[in-house]
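agent> Task received from the user: take the single chain below, predict its 3D structure, and emit structure tokens. No templates, no multimer pairing.
agent> Plan: (1) validate residues, (2) run structure prediction, (3) serialize to tokens, (4) report one or two observations.
agent> Step 1 OK, no nonstandard residues flagged.
tool_call: predict_structure(input=
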Amino acid sequence: MTAEIKFIVDFMLGRLARWLRILGYDTLYRNNYLPEEIALLSLQEKRVILTRNSRLSPKKCWQIYYLKSDNYQEQLRTVIRHFGLRYSPPQMFKRCSICNSLLEPVNKSDYYEEIPDYIYRTHSEFYRCHNCQQIYWPGSHIEFIKNILGQLARESQ
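)
tool_result: status=success, residues=157
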């Protein structure tokens, strides 16, 4: 499967939702979705429900996948394996990890007031979420993310 797969994640899997967004996958998440809302969005938008709630009925949704682990790295590993998810630099870091909207490149001079001084001086590439206005730049967190993904890949072999 490719980035076309879309997910909706229940309140127990917020960290997993963030990681799926980082990988470039369209992933809805709110910590206050009602089970009925999740099922309806799943049907309307053809989204796979990711949940740890075994009481969520598979009959009322498009597709559902139950996760057993409460560890986000194990959850991510399981989802990547089960759905055959791919992650590569062109696809990664294209979505807001907070609200799921697509990021847009911006000119840093337009956001001088919003960017910390050191970051402004040392970085040239910036992105902004048009929905929640969060500003992103390729910082040290990129290496952390790559290390986690590398570890997951090694453990999957």
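agent> Step 4: summary for the user.
Residues 6-83 form one domain.
agent> Done.
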